Amino acid sequence: MMAQKRMVWVLWSIGRSSAHRHAFIPMSGHSSSSPIIQKPPPLHSENESLLENLSSMGVDLNMARRRQPGVLRKLLTNEQGLAQFLMSKGADQETIASIISRFPRSITRSCEHLEERWKLWRNIFKNDSEVVGILSRSPESFFRSSDNENLQENITFLRSLGITPKDLHRLLTTAPRTFSNSVELNRNMVELLQSICLSLGGKDHEHFAKTIISKNLYILIRSTNRVKANVNFLLSSLTLSQAEALLLLQSHGAQILDLSHESLKRNFKNLQVKLQCLGCSKADFKKMILNYSLMLFISSERLNEKLDCLMDAGIHIHQIIQKPKVLDFSLDILNQRLQDLSRLGYDFQKNGIAVLDSSKKRFHAKIERLGPLEMESAAV
DNA sequence: CCTACCGGGCTCTGCCATGACG
DNA sequence: CGTCATGGCAGAGCCCGGTAGG
User: Fold this and answer.
1) How do residues A95-116 score in pLDDT, each as one tens digit?
2) N or C: fewer beta carbons within 10 Å in chain A?
3) Tally of CB atoms within 10 A around A338
4) CA A38, C1' B10: Å apart?
């Protein structure tokens, strides 16, 4: 059996230094009656010539060892083939070394396997360099699974959902792990989403699932338990009507399904308490979430800071509830803008707070219109 | 010309646990 | 037992501009 494997291996490894194959000398010369004594080429030691090989390629051995120690003990590996392959696709030495360091098992893939997998990815990407980019960003996404058939099935499955080529591209770019999931796992998530739609009285469950995926490209790498828990939590704690829920989940709400359940609950409760302290009603709270649920992404401390800084500037909490999108901006930007506006004597009660929710360009244009004399100070 | 509404773009890996398999 | 493949988790926002309509 070993011999057979080896022959296949030889086909893989053309062009590779044969040094470490010779290191494979089965424990000959040791007395079989004293297994404890046999120390020298023990089964569980690292393959020295492999280490040398990797080292000369610039691989960080300590990192590799920490991540997948077993690979360094292997006798048959394809690091040279992998390197040549990636180089032919435009990766440089440094990138290759980094890929191997971060995901050592990559060197166990055969050249044929690599060719095939690459071809499948290229179905979705425009060119090789895009694939190289993803690989260097996330080697694990490409290499963790060796199941090319599953990859093909995934692509077929996702296409069958009616996901556009553009979204498929975004999906693989943004959440490449999706494609290493088993088709079953992806299908489970899609079916969960569809069943959520149906349970809410939605008519087009396929469109619903597709919409959520395109709004939240990470959804397929979340667990169904998390998504289920988050949806249930939102439905019950906000007492949403079916129509409200369908609407929310197909818009900005799709993204907050990503949060770990604990974070969602924590951020949710914090906001609830905060609003309560400010004298707001339950309806206010609900309205705020429906207006812009993404602020649930913001950690409680940060959100409180933002709310406080807005209110210190004389903005009323009900203005924020009407337009929670202003919380989308960083604390720095908010503070800067509040300063600029207060210098100009801007009256939030009279003029509203929409001015805070604009791009830099538009905000500065606005400031200039409000107070031409203050241009320099407003220009950051 | 100005504003409000609205949606989009960017972005997310690297680690651990577990079960299958040999 | 060791290795592999796979599932799952923690962590926790910001910014831009098209465009309809005043």
Assistant:
1) 999 999 999 999 999 999 999 9
2) N
3) 19
4) 57
